[in-house]
Amino acid sequence: MRVLAFEDRVNIEALLISGSITMDGLSFEQRWSSEDALHHIARVRPDVLLLDHYMPPMTGLQVLDALLNAVEEGTMDRPPAIVAMSSEPSCNEAMLARGADHGIVKPRVATLGIWP
Q: Mapped to the 3 state alphabet, what secondary structure does 50-92 carry?
């Protein structure tokens, strides 16, 4: 499973490990800014895309909008699972309304039922 996280402050891999997620079989990459987000999504082709909201230069919602627009245009494939993982629940709700599959406050991301 390929996992790509966009988060500028919290080490998501450490968060997953502390939540008892085994990293065996996971290819994990974290981007610490949203610069060139679509390039990195296309390069990694993640099975799980994790998006924080407050992440310069684009918000998670802006990354999601750009990604879904590219999918609609046929220039990118949609990741099977898109997770809104802001610490602010209203930001997750906005990403869910736009098309994210899951929304969860960041400290609880390891509790999602998507991990092997």
A: EECCCCCCCCHHHHHHHHHHHHHHCCCCCCCEEEECCCCHHHH
Please give the Cα distance from 68 to 54 (Å, whole number).
19
Enter the tokens of residue 56. Answer: 């310069």
For β-strands 48-51 and 27-31, DSSP reports them as: unpaired
Global model pTM greater than 0.85: yes
3-state DSSP call for residue 105?
A: coil
The model's pLDDT over 53-91, given as tens digits with 9 standing for 90+, comes to: 998 999 999 999 999 999 999 999 999 999 999 999 999
**Distance between CA atoms of 48 and 31, rounded to whole angstroms?**
14
Q: What gap in Å lies between CA 8 and CA 47, rounded to an integer? A: 20
